[in-house]
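Q: Make up one entry.
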Amino acid sequence: MSQSEVNLYSSFQKQFLRHAEKPALFTGNGESISFQDLETRSARLASYLTQSGVIPGDRVTVQVQKSPEAVCLYLACLRAGFVFHPLNTGYKPAELEYYIGDARPAAIICDAGSGDVMQQLAGKAGVTKVLTLNADGSGSLPDAASEASENFETVTRDKDDMAALLYSSGTTGVPKGIMLSHENLLVNAQSLIEFWGFTENDVLLHALPIFHVHGLFVGLGCAFLSGASMRWAPAFDAKQAVELLPECTVMMGVPTYYTRLLGEAAFDKNVVSNMRLFISGSAPLLEETFNEFEQHSGHRILERYGMTETNMNTSNPLVGERKAGTVGKPLPGVEVRIVDDQGKSLVEGEIGNLQVRGNNVFKAYWNMPEKTAEDFTEDNFFNTGDKGRIDSDSYVSIVGRAKDMIISGGLNVYPKEIELLIDNVTGVKESAVIGLAHSDFGEAVVAVLVASGVECPEETELIARLKEQLAGFKVPKRVLVIDELPRNTMGKVQKNVLREQYKDLFSGT
């Protein structure tokens, strides 16, 4: 295979064949799925979808519950050269319509319970193939693929060919398609298994969703590329985690997972005696959580920093000082710099705009050349939109976000998307959506609005309306009504003033 010919699955497959009979996944119901099972099942799915007319480069939109069969579908898309397009299982029809219309998939895979809705959305987008896959592994897709060939030759892909399409909304409210290549995903996984010391002897507690970079590319990538096994949980449950941790060596989670573990009376040093590493990401880890976790468990959480557009950029070290409040040093092959608003590099310790460059960074947004040009510098650094600083030891700290994003429970929430919906409600003049500190979610979504002359909906009514249109993690936990939004001399809403004014709103939670 030449340097330009890359398929992420080919690298996974080497481990799958080497450890064919070894368990790849232990599920919560006692089921053990071997690496050979992953190889065979993904081959059948790839064979069937190829026979059905899906060709390399086609998008396959997937909104299904987390399951071993869903993992096999991801692997099938990789090896067949399709573009895997995962969607949050909480997305509602209004959100899905945009993603499907923009991605223009050749096939849609969904849970049977949402089949009728997906058929309607597919019809609007001109998509003719809609198949189902349920959490228990049943559905029209696995049924149809059961007789397909177990032999499937992995399709050659160029290093820049798209492997996955994920969306990340912008401050304009219009979601951006992030085109991640086979090379992007491969080099990042290779870097992480070396940096974090993953081996075939590891057992990863996998309780993250697999529609998100963290659980999909980081968790699965590290396990599959090293031949490690996984204890598989459909979702994170602190009590279940306490039961599973003695059988594991590594855990990946968002800060919420760690605060919930600390709330479990049974969580102590005995539970984690077999563990070698706890990793946190997707949201800032509070220094107090870092310190409290070390006191309870004897382990210092390893915090790292990544984005959908880049996968992982920096990490605290496996061996060496893990500085609380920092996201560590740049990973091998990743360049990080801090610049001012004019693009001039700043000296160590100064706060500025964080930019990254490396083979882990995506090349372009889907069908948005102007936005791509806006977010990359002339020397090919990506503007992350985060504010940061680099200390004298090269450790990076994230001190804020320039793009006005909220991270609630490890998931990105873009205020403009919610504001557009609220502003269209009769009785609302204008709104501002902010994130406020919350002990469990890290940040909680809060809507602050100004009523118009007509009657404004009550808080509970407005929240109920938004639940019908938005995934649950985006819905405001509170709605506050005030006389007017604070503005600067240019008329821009000062969300920093609102955040300061209501900073203690959830202090009792």
